[in-house]
Amino acid sequence: xxxxxxxxxxxxxxxxxxxxxxxxxxxxxxxxxxxxxxxxxxxxxxxxxxxxxxxxxxxxxxxxxxxxxxxxxxxxxxxxxxxxxxxxxxxxxxxxxxxxxxxxxxxxxxxxxxxxxxxxxxxxxxxxxxxxxxxxxxxxxxxxxxxxxxxxxxxxxxxxxxxxxxxxxxxxxxxxxxxxxxxxxxxxxxxxxxxxxxxxxxxxxxxxxxxxxxxxxxxxxxxxxxxxxxxxxxxxxxxxxxxxxxxxxxxxxxxxxxxxxxxxxxxxxxxxxxxxxxxxxxxxxxxxxxxxxxxxxxxxxxxxxxxxxxxxxxxxxxxxxxxxxxxxxxxxxxxxxxxxxxxxxxxxxxxxxxxxxxxxxxxxxxxxxxxxxxxxxxxxxxxxxxxxxxxxxxxxxxxxxxxxxxxxxxxxxxxxxxxxxxxxxxxxxxxxxxxxx
Length: 437
Hints:
Low-confidence stretches: none
Order of helices and strands: EHEHHEHEHHEEEEEHEHEEHHHHEHEHH
Distance between the termini: 13 Å
Radius of gyration: 22 Å
Number of helices: 15
Shape: globular
Mean pLDDT: 94
Helix content: 40-55%
């Protein structure tokens, strides 16, 4: 495969691998650890890093907040935007993507915040568009429960339309800085949008200057059929989780089909598949490390706690050593649920968690030496057709050893094969880096 593919990384502003031997113990909360991670990712020429977010303290697993808090799963979780600013100011080329929920932020505030961040970071900011999928989150914003998924996406369609119009409310050349005549901005190039839709009403215009990208990069993870349509219509990069190479190819082809139907060039939508590589100096070392991880009680309960938080289904009610008694449905993240349950397989709940291997975010198994994993990643991309990978750990917790394994082991092996970027193009914005190949 001669065409390069893109790399990104996703994590939370949560405790690191706080119980592991290579973690920093879950503190401090000054953002320095995550900022160091961003600097390492930049040295490895990643396209972007994304900070995931949730807006509640989960109570699904075990019927209370006790187990989530005790395990440090999903909570505590700090606001991603200040961390995004810190990481962005400590780097020069890496794209920085923050999660901003359409549930929590009025469209004007999202547009203003994203524009400000893009200016501060010189055109490297991205917005991860989420609708939030938890009733507990909705109850923090004056709602009793979330609207159904299709309604959430209809609201999100209108929301993104408003935000786009707000970015466009200033022409790119509106700031003239005419000192001689005392004119900072040309008032004829700034206008209200007077938006009145079914869900939102926004006068505009935006009160920030056009940022380097004018419209920051849009990132979105849409697993359901409706989510794929939304992502294909709006995103510059799609975060995807699929079941094996065939599932990856089907997902990417489907998103590209929807993008074309929406009048977009499918090549403008970069689908990055989540993977959780396990690396060792030998293949056996990597496989032993992987087996220790997935068979540990901590791993089993962390995955179930996270799945409970995402789906608002209490997995503590099910026997670990029995199959799930019935097919489960949720108004939360159905894709995360489907990734786990594999209905009809006959596997016990414990086996389902272990079989998922990478937790909720593994699209294909990647276990071995850096050269073996790099070779496999190239083969997978050739079979799928593109566009790249989103690297993370099974529960999005990081430690410095994992970061070093990836940035100092795996990425050089990819670069030696000509599979990933070995240097940034000077002056490129995040959107331009994504469009480069």
